Please model this.
Amino acid sequence: MSNEIAYEIEHSPAYASLILNLQENETVFIESGAMAAMDSGITMKSKVRGGFSKGLGRIFSGESFFVSEFATKGKPGQIYVSPGVPGDIQHYYLKGNGLMVQSSGFVACSPGVEIDTKFQGFKGFFSGESLFLLRATGEGDFWFSSYGAIVEINVAGEYVVDTGYIVAFEDTLNYNVEMLGGLSFKGLRTGILGGEGLVCRFSGQGSLWVQSRNLYGLINFLNPFRPTKN
Model:
């Protein structure tokens, strides 16, 4: 029997927000700064999850490793959670397995979930994306977010996704980063000069979540309209 935290996801998929309905003496960890509103009886404190060495990876990835711990004392309480980027929110219940999530995708989790970082090699240097994936393990609730809607794909065999659209995937899937068109890292020079991007080739069996929009595509679109100094 699972001990899931009661929750609702509203305004999905464009501007999803998460509502957590905590029972008496229940605790949840939330992305730092993502709490929008809560009952006055809920207590909050900042924490570092996983220790200093694991936290260092989050610092290098451009994000804070700090999360906020929220707990009810003596009576139930409700928390409204809003991720920083407009998009969707997905719930996943861990049962001793592992889930890989883009480093900006963490929203919230229950205390039984452990979060660590996994280095992705040189992928981020060439794609302009984060160098790190989060790995969630243990048992309990985990919520992650995206830019745009989240689409779940059940992989059985092989599947190819542009790196800018990956949100999360189960660790039963193997993955290999390569240039679009089948080039490996040996062909990086040719691929970059040709304007081609990086894709991730998944193999095995498991669930994969992709987002319907690419945040870096929006940034590139807006870049010519930035104010510049004469």
Summary: The longest strand covers residues 132-145. Helices lie at 51-60, 123-127, 188-193, 215-222. The two ends are 64 Å apart (CA to CA). DSSP finds four helices and 16 strands in the chain.
